Amino acid sequence: MDAPSDPRWILTRVRWPMVVPIRDDPEMSSRCLNSLASPSAVPALLFVLSANLCAQADSEPTSEPITIGVRETLHSDILDEDREIWLHVPSGAREEGANREGHKRYPVLVLLDGPAHFHHTTGTIDFLVGNNMMPEVIVAAVANTDRTRDLTPFADDQMTGAMLGGGAEDFLSFLCDELIPSIDARYPTAPMRLLIGHSFGGLFAMHALSARPGFFQGIVAISPSMQWGDQQMVEQVDRWLQDPATRELSPTSIYMTVGNEGIGLLGGTMKASGLFAEQGPPSLRWKFTHHPDESHGSVVYPSTVGGLRWIFEGWRLSDATGVWERGGVAAIEAHYGRLEERLGLEVGVPETLFGDMIFKLASANRAKDCLALIDDLGPERVPFPPDVFAILANVVFPKSDLESRRRALSIGLERAPGDPTLRQAAENLGMELPPMPAESENGGEEQAGGGG
Fold it and tell me: What is the pLDDT of residues 401-428, one digit of tens each?
């Protein structure tokens, strides 16, 4: 591709929504195409950007708070105490009427040791969401009152007093039977739930897997304190895996990590991994990662990133073009169907995926493949507006490839035979124009699907 003055260079770096809105104004569409084709387009664009930046620099600075969540208090009858919850709720879930039927639903992620991990976890989630690697989620971060009591499933005979522990079952009941229902009642939640815990929280996550199987579909157990109680959690996991009912486990993913830890913690986690490998049901998806260069504290961040990416592996189909070449659009839809079944979550093919594929093919001078993909999609799956076909023919495809340019316009005219921009472009290339569509009863023109 040539220097930045080449209009194709500009178009491949303009997001789809910036092109689509001009479809309702044929004159503007034509002017846009002509201006993009001009070598002066880039200097003019830079001039406008510079002017805007200068105007901003002359204005008075303003300030407003950046809000990433709210802090709430929820009374627990089970624990007989008030619990502080930090909530991070996507904007779509906060909209008026968001909990109505048909609205987008959001998985719920329960984060243990909440205040200690709230900021980096919500930041990580927003980053992964922004890069289309996971869905938006509601984060419920639970603050501690008696950490040892709540996060340990059994007492450790080597401890005394408040450090004895053993109250995890009540705390698990609080999460499952009080916290989650309170969130479900107020926000548009999806059936998928996730749990992230570190250290004692990781031990609790292992307990939740076997004590409430299937309740959390995604679990991240970071450096779980498997040494607690002389590694009794290994025995608990073993008993659970041998229970015939475990073979009926709904799809569940557990991601375990360990940093540069003591032998009891590392050894217990590796024993649990071995049990999963030997006895785990087909529906249990698991992974163990050792981070020898991370401490017990620093291992939290890479484990959170790695765990979320692994649980939602396949959310972004990185080789979408290759999948399409091997199996067509049906293969892409099948991929997301399998992902939906594994997560228990409505997924569907991302709205921008096919548009991105088309422009990648076009910008790689693969015009015929680009048009083959459009044909495979059909107007029902992706009802592209007429401007797209005019842009492909007039700006993106090489001028010398008349066959592909005319084919792009033909597809566009099949869908919107009365579109003036397409008709003018087709006439300029010496194409025979289709008949103008008949006028509808309200005086407008009837057009094929995808024309507006």
Answer: 999 999 999 999 999 999 999 999 999 9
Type of residue numbered 169: E
> Residue 152 CB: number of other CB atoms within 10 A?
26
What does the buried/exposed string (b/e) look like for 80-98 if buried means 16 or more CB atoms within 10 Å of the residue's CB? eeebebbbbbbeebeeeeb
- Which amino acid, one-letter code, is at 332? I
The span from the CA of 357 to the CA of 352, in Å, is 9
CA 344/CA 23 separation, integer angstroms:
38
The 3 state secondary structure assigned to 320-371 is HHHHHHHHHHHHHHHHHHHHHHHHCCCCCCCCCHHHHHHHHHHHCCCHHHHH
For residues 192 and 101, what is the distance between their CA atoms, to the nearest angstrom?
A: 17
Closest CA to 434 of 381, 451, 385, 396: 451
Map tokens 């792009």 to a residue: 408
Separation of alpha carbons 113 and 115, rounded Å? 6
pLDDT digits (tens, 9 = 90+) for 373-400: 999 998 888 788 888 899 999 989 999 9
Name the β-bridge partners of 138: 108
Instruction: Answer for the pair 395, 8: CB distance below 8 angstroms, yes or no.
Output: yes
Measured CA to CA in angstroms, residue 157 lies from 67, 166, 232, 380, 381 at distances of 44, 11, 12, 66, 62
Average pLDDT of the chain, as a whole number: 85
Neighbours of 433 (CB within 10 A): 13
Instruction: Convert the pLDDT of each residue in 58-111 to its tens digit.
Output: 678 889 998 999 999 999 999 999 999 999 999 989 877 766 776 889 999 999
Return the structure tokens found at 77.
Answer: 């009858």
Task: Residue 216: name the closest of 195, 241, 189 by CA.
Answer: 195
DSSP-assigned letter for residue 177:
I
